[in-house]
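Input structure tokens:
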């Protein structure tokens, strides 16, 4: 008899969703697999997915501590199960670490398997910074830190004086069965680094390519799960065939004090782009706004035109890309989509500020490392076209 498995998916972001749902769908009919999905931005249509083995919950960040308490209690009652925890790398200190502190006193490390996912450009930048250290020294240090960290984690006490650093995001494989899902290239391979060489066996490429067979074979399940209307699928398929059609992306300003100024700058930039011919006719624009910017996305849509096609927040871009439902052209605000969908033609990329700010200097470094697009295609929000 096969060992039963409990899969816990805790996802507060968008990029990893397609890969995580892929991992979920692959075992959706396996009677030995039970799943808990706690999502922030994605609302799944679970009406047709109820099999008695899946629990859905939403709004990860609301009352997070209580949610982790509930998950930990659920795990504690599955002592004869293999436990998989799926979450993103950048939020390890407030999701993964607290959850493990709750469950490790009650279950064995041998029961655990971690699945940790890239989310946003933050983890890419962190790995660039790690690549600047001597790889052998970093590897030695991390082995030593992992022994101490494992001991501290198992004590069922607050971490106290433990100072988390960016390399600790990759500490897990030293003492727990771990898989890291990372965007390619995982690090700057032009520079030999012993630490990353040792990490390679634990990495699974986070790759979203058009016509992904593993997704196309289950697209009926996906369409029901993501609640994709058939008329939207037909419309996207038709627009995607237009060689001028463009996927236009916008983001949001995390600084509340600057959000209104950023929004007005975006409205002006859209006007400039339209008048200069850098955007196609509005019937050929597919728009995806950042879910957090929901209240302002409507004005951006209006500025783009009355006949654009707006993608719902609940459908991950990467999934539509693998289904050949997005245009070949991509443009808009800089973000992880330019890394995850590399086979698109980048028309232009909007970055906040100007080319001299530290954040953009680092962004340009990772763009060049990943060879996403020519940096001549960057335009800055504080400059005119």
């Amino acid at each position: 008899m096969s060992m039963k498995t409990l899969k816990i998916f805790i996802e507060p972001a968008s990029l990893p969703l397609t890969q995580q749902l892929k991992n979920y769908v692959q075992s959706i009919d396996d009677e030995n697999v039970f799943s808990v999905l706690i999502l922030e931005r994605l609302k799944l249509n679970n009406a047709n997915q109820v099999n008695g083995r899946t629990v859905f919950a939403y709004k990860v960040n609301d009352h997070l501590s209580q949610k982790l308490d509930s998950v930990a209690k659920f795990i504690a009652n599955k002592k004869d199960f293999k436990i998989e925890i799926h979450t993103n790398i950048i939020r390890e200190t407030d999701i993964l670490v607290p959850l493990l502190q709750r469950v490790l006193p009650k279950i064995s490390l041998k029961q655990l398997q971690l699945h940790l996912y890239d989310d946003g450009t933050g983890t890419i930048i962190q790995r660039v910074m790690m690549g600047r250290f001597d790889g052998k020294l970093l590897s030695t240090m991390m082995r030593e830190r992992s022994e101490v960290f494992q001991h501290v984690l198992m004590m069922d006490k607050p971490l106290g004086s433990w100072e988390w650093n960016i390399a600790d995001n990759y500490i897990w494989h030293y003492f727990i069965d771990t898989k890291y899902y990372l965007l390619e290239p995982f690090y700057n391979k032009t520079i030999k680094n012993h630490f990353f060489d040792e990490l390679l066996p634990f990495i699974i490429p986070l790759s979203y390519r058009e016509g992904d067979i593993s997704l196309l074979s289950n697209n009926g399940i996906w369409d029901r799960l993501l609640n994709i209307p058939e008329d939207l699928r037909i419309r996207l398929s038709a627009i995607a065939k237009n060689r001028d059609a463009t996927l236009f992306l916008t983001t949001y300003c995390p600084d509340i004090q600057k959000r209104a100024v950023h929004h007005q700058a975006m409205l002006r930039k859209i006007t400039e782009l339209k008048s200069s011919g850098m955007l196609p006719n509005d019937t050929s624009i597919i728009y995806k706004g950042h879910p957090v910017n929901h209240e302002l996305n409507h004005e951006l849509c209006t500025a783009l035109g009355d006949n654009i096609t707006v993608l719902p927040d609940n459908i991950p871009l990467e999934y539509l890309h693998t289904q050949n439902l997005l245009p070949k052209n991509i443009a808009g605000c800089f973000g992880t989509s330019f890394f995850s969908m590399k086979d698109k033609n980048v028309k232009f990329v909007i970055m906040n500020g100007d080319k001299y700010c530290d954040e953009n200097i680092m962004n340009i470094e990772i763009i060049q490392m990943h060879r996403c697009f020519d940096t001549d295609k960057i335009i800055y929000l504080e400059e005119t076209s």
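The domain at 5-205 is CATH 3.40.50.11120 (Rossmann fold). The CA atoms of residues 120 and 336 lie 5 Å apart.
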